[in-house]
Write a structure and sequence with these properties.
Belongs to the VAMP-associated protein (VAP) (TC 9.B.17) family. This protein is α+β, with helices and mostly antiparallel strands. The protein is built from 4 helices and 9 strands.
Amino acid sequence: MARPEQVLVLEPPHELRFRGPFTDVVTATLKLGNPTDRNVCFKVKTTAPRRYCVRPNSGVIDAGDSVNVSVMLQPFDYDPNEKSKHKFMVQSMLAPYDMTDTEGVWKEAKPEELMDSKLRCAFEMPLENDKTHESESHQLSVSSACPVKTEHGAALPKSATSAALDDGEVKKIMEECKRLQMEVQRLREENQQIREDDGLRKRKVTSVPAPQSSSSMATSGMREEGLSTRLLALCVLLFVIGVIVGKLAL
């Protein structure tokens, strides 16, 4: 007895096409539609089970509904001179009204209740023009996803909101820089005054006893060393803040 005609509608109906390159998993979609008023059980089988991953590979399609089956071809070394001999078969049967166990239904199914459709597989590599177009599209998508960079290599702000938020921080840092510059200038003047006072003391050293002269020189040296240390620390801090302001301004 001949098998009944397939009730499921397959898209594509006869051939699954896989488009390279095949250095990664390539997926083709098979749509199974059920135009009947009965639920339909289905199974998807292949002649090369180690080369493909099928999800879902079985199930039940409700009346008037459809299912998308993902057929994933595993990576392999593509040979354009080798024709694909891989094939798929979609097997189906009308689900019993009182069905509770899908696997049990398949085991108890009679051959005349089973319907099947066969599909062949085709592999194709993109043309050179297509490769160029895909490469350009990929570069454009990457460029749009990454922040644009200026001539100095600093990334531009991602949005006007973040730029507006940075303006307040920049203003605070600029005010702090001005205050530090004034402090540095004051310390320089104070240091210069100490050096001038030290020169006057040295000119009077002949009239001052030796122990007192040594004490005065040690005291002035300590003051000058303390001021120099503070001046150096402020200069370093000013440099660091300047670098931060430069990055924010860009």
